[in-house]
Amino acid sequence: MLFLLVDLYVNISNERPEKSYPEKMRNGQKSYTVEEARQKLMHFCAYRDRSQKEVEDKLNDMRMIAEAKEKIIISLMQDGFLNEERFARSFVRGKFRIKKWGRIKITQELKKREISSPIIKLGLSEIREQDYQKALYELAEKKSEKIKEPNQYKKKKKLADHLLRKGYESHLVFDCINEITD
After folding, report:
1. Parallel, antiparallel, or unpaired for β 25-26 and 29-30?
2. Domain, as residue range, for 102
3. How many structural domains is the chain composed of?
4. CB 80: neighbour CB atoms within 10 A?
5. Which residues, in sequence order, are CB contacts of 76 under 8 Å at separation 6+?
6. Most buried residue among 28, 67, 167, 168 by CB atoms closer than 10 A?
7. How big is the chain by its Cα radius of gyration, in Å?
8. What does the alpha-carbon distance between residue 89 and residue 23 come to, in Å, rounded to a whole number?
């Protein structure tokens, strides 16, 4: 008898009425007005340079309609929060100086972010040729010291594979390898 009462109590206590969420909450997500979304994206773009695709993805996550997205993006561009050329230049500087990426890998990543070819070229102009060569040789020497392979051909292949994965051009990679291993 006691078990039936406990079971009845549990069933009754679990049958609570649905909580009524404020109008702005639907399916666990807040809905935004155009101005609220614009303010949120101003902070998003002020934190670091963003591509237009990143902003569009953020607006999609916020479930904004197409007209609102367009209005917000135009507003962000006019106010200087969104600038594809500035984004490309800072992206190239950062990936080259910090991660030591080559031009090929940087170009691929910018294309993933839907940056146009002329803007990619402008961004790549941030890399000076002598800095590029210096970074390639430093990277090759550092990796060459770490490769513990007695066979010279296998060692050269491992080194070449590493530098190619980093995004450096094949002719530069092979010239570099031949120079540092001879």
Report:
1. antiparallel
2. 84-124
3. 3
4. 9
5. 38, 41, 42, 45, 55, 82
6. 168
7. 27
8. 42
